[in-house]
Amino acid sequence: MANKKKVIVTGFEPFGEHAVNSSWVAVQELEQLGLGEAVDLHVCEVPVEYQAVQSLLPSLWKEHQPQLVVHVGVSGLATTVTLEQCGHNKGYKRLDNCSFCPVSQCCMEDGPDCVKSVLDMDVICKRVNDSNIGVTVSVSKDAGRYLCDYTYYTSLFLGQGRSAFVHVPPLGKPYSSQSLGRGLQAVVQEMLTLLEEEHSEKDDKHNEHCNHKH
Fold first, then answer.
1. CB hemisphere CA count around 211 (13 angstroms)
2. What does each of the 214 residues of the chain score in pLDDT, given as a tens digit?
3. Which of 78, 105, 207, 209 has the maximal Cβ count within 10 Å?
4. Strands 39-46 and 5-12
5. Are 111 and 157 in contact (CB under 8 A)?
6. Residue 11 CB burial class (10 angstroms; 0-12, 13-18, ≥19)
7. Residue 191 falls in which region: left (phi positive, over 0), alpha (psi -120 to 50) or beta
8. What class of enzyme is it (predicted)?
């Protein structure tokens, strides 16, 4: 299949109290499940380091030219699979795994304060919850001003909004790794469906425009 969709999904390495990072565990489960024949899924583990993110993300976007990049992170506060709508530029004061934080405390010196995903997370949330896969999904507009938010903002900027961020709870609180993998699979499949729908709507509008008779 020449026109396989390329999707990159990332998780994070352990940090702080998260000796096992459920985001990377969930992404590995997703890799086992796959996203169907039409999707070429590439996964990678992201270091919890601002500078590593700065060098890794441009190469991921450039090298793979993905249709969609989904970053997954753990949140000790999350009890659901949480879809983040936007990434923020400022407020990065918390030290990373190398005891570093950006001097400017922002992702991009002159970047916009907030970049939104082209995906409507409310729509995806509703569709996944309606499908009753046994994992509850919710939506958030604050990814927490640490490496999750930092990565998301950078990725949204690089991919013109064709990125998504999913926060997952720690393992067993309440979901198993298998459940998280299934939840991620459902979420990413809905994201791809939505992108496709938006794409065909654009085509329809374009065709209407071209076909009108004078």
1. 6
2. 457 899 999 999 999 999 999 999 999 999 999 999 999 999 999 999 999 999 999 999 999 999 999 999 999 999 999 999 999 999 999 999 999 999 999 999 999 999 999 999 999 999 999 999 999 999 999 999 999 999 999 999 999 999 999 999 999 999 999 999 999 999 999 999 999 998 888 877 766 554 444 4
3. 78
4. parallel
5. yes
6. buried
7. alpha
8. hydrolase
* Pairing status of strand 81-84 against strand 163-168: antiparallel
Residue 206 φ then ψ, to 5°: -60, -45
Residues 77, 80: Cα–Cα separation, whole Å: 9
Taken in order of first residue, the domains within the chain and their CATH numbers are 5-211 (3.40.630.20)
**137: which 2 tokens?**
């999904």
User: Which residue in 44, 101, 148, 210 is the catalytic one?
Assistant: 148
Q: Can 148 be counted among the known catalytic residues?
A: yes
Q: Which two tokens stand for residue 179?
A: 């459940």
Sign of torsion, CA 24 25 30 31?
Answer: positive
d(CA 133, CA 128): 7
Q: Are 155 and 163 in contact (CB under 8 A)?
A: yes
d(CA 24, CA 34): 15
What is the reported pTM? 0.94
Q: What does residue 45 show for φ and ψ, rounded to 5 degrees?
A: -95, 130
Amino acid at 89: N
